[in-house]
Each structure stands twice: as C-alpha cells, then as structure tokens.
UniProtKB/TrEMBL annotation:
<dbReference type="InterPro" id="IPR015168">
    <property type="entry name" value="SsuA/THI5"/>
</dbReference>
<dbReference type="InterPro" id="IPR027939">
    <property type="entry name" value="NMT1/THI5"/>
</dbReference>
<protein>
    <submittedName>
        <fullName>NitT/TauT family transport system substrate-binding protein</fullName>
    </submittedName>
</protein>
<dbReference type="GO" id="GO:0009228">
    <property type="term" value="P:thiamine biosynthetic process"/>
</dbReference>
<keyword id="KW-0732">Signal</keyword>
<feature type="signal peptide">
    <location>
        <begin position="1"/>
        <end position="22"/>
    </location>
</feature>
<feature type="domain" description="SsuA/THI5-like">
    <location>
        <begin position="37"/>
        <end position="249"/>
    </location>
</feature>
<dbReference type="Pfam" id="PF09084">
    <property type="entry name" value="NMT1"/>
</dbReference>
Length: 330
C-alpha cells in the first residue's frame, strides 16, 4: 500500500510540475502606422482575449496594404489587416492569400474638407480644388463617384501628390478637399489643425464595396485550421468588446504605443469606424460575417473601375472565406 501511495504521489508531482502548454505566437501586421481603426486588436490583447484563446499576439505596424499583403504571402507575418481590394489584386496575380474575415463592409472612402468650407454635397465640389494620390484605391473609384453624382472632371481642379502631400495641401489651403478615409485622414487633419472635417461619403451615393479585413496565407490556413479559428474567434470578441468601450479601446493603443496619437482623435477615429462594420444585410450579425452579394458587387466594381483582372468575376469566392469565423454566441 505504501508503495502504491508513493507511486501515486510521484505521478502527481510529475503532472503538476509539467509546464502549461505554451501559447501560439502569432504576428498580425497592420495596413499602416497605428490609428483609431486598429483599436480592437490592441484592446483584445490588453484584455487577455487573445491569451484566452491560447494566442500570444504580436502587433506590427505596416507600410501600406500592398506591403502587408506581400509579407503575408511570404509568411513573414501570420495574419494581415489590409484593404481587401488590394489583397484581391495580389491574389489574382497568384499571391497565395485570402481574407478570413471582412471587417469593414461599408466603404470609408470620401471627399473631405474643413467644415468651415461648407462643402457638404457633391454639387459643392464644383469650382473647388481636390487633392488626390494617383493610382491609389480612392482615385481609381473616383470616376465612379463622379458618374453617380453627375459631376465632370471639368467641374473642379485637382492637385496630385503622395499621402502626406495630399494632407498638407488641405491643411495649407492649397486644396479645398482630399480623397481620404472617414476615420483616417480626417483625424490626421484634426490632429494637425484642431479643426473638424466634413466627409462626403462615397457609400452615401451608391458606391458600396468592402474595405479592410483579416487576410492569411492560403497554405498557412490549411496547415493551421484550429489556430486560424481561434484567432478569428478572439478577433471577433475583441471587436465586440471594443465597440462597447470605444475610449478604453483607443486608450489601449496609447498604453502599447505612447506615441500612437492623441486619445480624443483616436477615440473619434474608432467611433467613425464602427458604423462601417456592417451593412443592412449584416446588421444583426457578428463582425466579419460578410455576404456573398457584398463581395460579388465589390469584385464587379473593381473589375470595371479599379483595374482588377476581369477573370476575378469567374469566382469571387476564391478571395474570402467565412468558414473560420465563430458561430453566433460562441
């Protein structure tokens, strides 16, 4: 009996001495330098939501959606948060990437200027100067906005430059408006000037296409199906938690990166992002549950106006999957 008790004690000691299973290290690369839109990822990490799914999350800033897509395709980042149409352009050319969740299902594209300029509808753009960045996603869709609103290129002037030049043009009065995202460039202008910006949203004039989402390498997804499910489960919960506490979510950015911005504009930028998560069809669903119709319409718009290869229309479902998203209530 003593021997049996002794053996049981040794077995118990060995069991309790075994370390807990290590969390899976996961690298998420953002589309750009951190701003309010990214709050859920930082909040999910700070709240232990990723840790609860057995994930040790590292968040890296990006240098554009194209560069992040390349990193994911090359497996130097496990997941990317990028402009999904940019990912589509890479995928149609052979990059092994797909979206495992589309978060922004309503377009954030807009033409924006200072509130005191009183430019609030397309008709007000006539006679004004618009700053653009040639070949970026917004400039490619701009002709469709003009068509939808009855504007002609002769109705206004344009000045062209990179992203910072475009911002400077509006800040310094060289342009009345710029093409930008409602939760991004508008906050950068406000940070620089303290002045509010009014966006004329493309989506309000019948141009609705998806924007940012989570992407992964196709081979990585196949080889790590359980990890992908856990990551998407954690990210879904992180978005839902951040929606309920926008300021706390924005603060988590500054806690991780004290030079990541100002709390007021980070919060406002994130609050401007939340309405973009769902369409009328997905308003009752959890984040990331994009519809086939929304994705198909996005592909069709990109083929016609955005330079996407026409063969993309053959199989829009090749660009995304909802299979790794959590079910309702889970």
């Amino acid at each position: 009996m003593k021997r049996l008790i002794g053996a049981a004690s040794v077995a118990l000691l060995m069991f309790t001495a075994m370390p807990a299973q290590a969390a899976d290290k996961v690298v998420l690369m953002l589309n750009w330098y951190v701003y309010g839109e990214h709050a859920p990822f930082y909040y999910g990490k700070a709240r232990g939501i990723y840790a609860a799914e057995g994930i040790d999350l590292e968040i890296q800033e990006g240098r554009g959606s194209a560069a992040t897509t390349q990193a994911v395709a090359a497996k130097t980042a496990d997941f990317g948060y990028v402009d999904v149409p940019t990912m589509m352009r890479a995928a149609i050319k052979g990059a092994p990437v797909l979206a495992t969740g589309v978060l922004l299902q309503t377009s954030p594209m807009s033409a924006m200027g200072f509130v005191d300029k009183n430019i609030k509808k397309p008709e007000d753009i006539k006679g004004k100067t618009v700053a653009i960045t040639p070949a970026d996603s917004m400039t490619q869709i701009w002709p469709l906005f003009l068509k939808k609103t009855g504007l002609k290129e002769s109705d206004f002037q344009t000045v062209a430059g990179d992203g910072q030049t475009k911002l400077n043009a509006v800040i310094n009065g060289q342009a009345d408006l710029l093409l930008g995202y409602v939760m991004d460039q508008s906050m950068k202008i406000k940070d620089a000037t303290g002045k509010d910006v009014y966006p004329i949203k493309f989506a309000d004039y019948g141009i609705n296409m998806v924007s940012s989402g989570i992407i992964a390498n196709s081979d990585y997804v196949k080889a790590n199906a359980d990890l992908v499910r856990r990551f998407m489960s954690a990210t879904t919960k992180a978005v839902e938690a951040a929606e309920k506490e926008p300021k706390a979510a924005a603060q988590s950015i500054l806690d991780a990166n004290p030079k990541g911005g100002k709390i007021d504009t980070l919060t406002q930028g994130f609050e401007l992002t939340i309405p973009l998560y769902r369409t009328a069809e997905t308003k009752a669903k959890r984040p990331f549950q994009v519809t086939d119709q929304n994705m198909t319409e996005t592909v069709n718009l990109l083929v016609e106006y955005g330079g996407l290869d026409a063969k993309a229309k053959d199989n829009p479902k090749a660009f995304y999957t909802n299979d790794y998203l959590p079910k309702s209530g889970s």
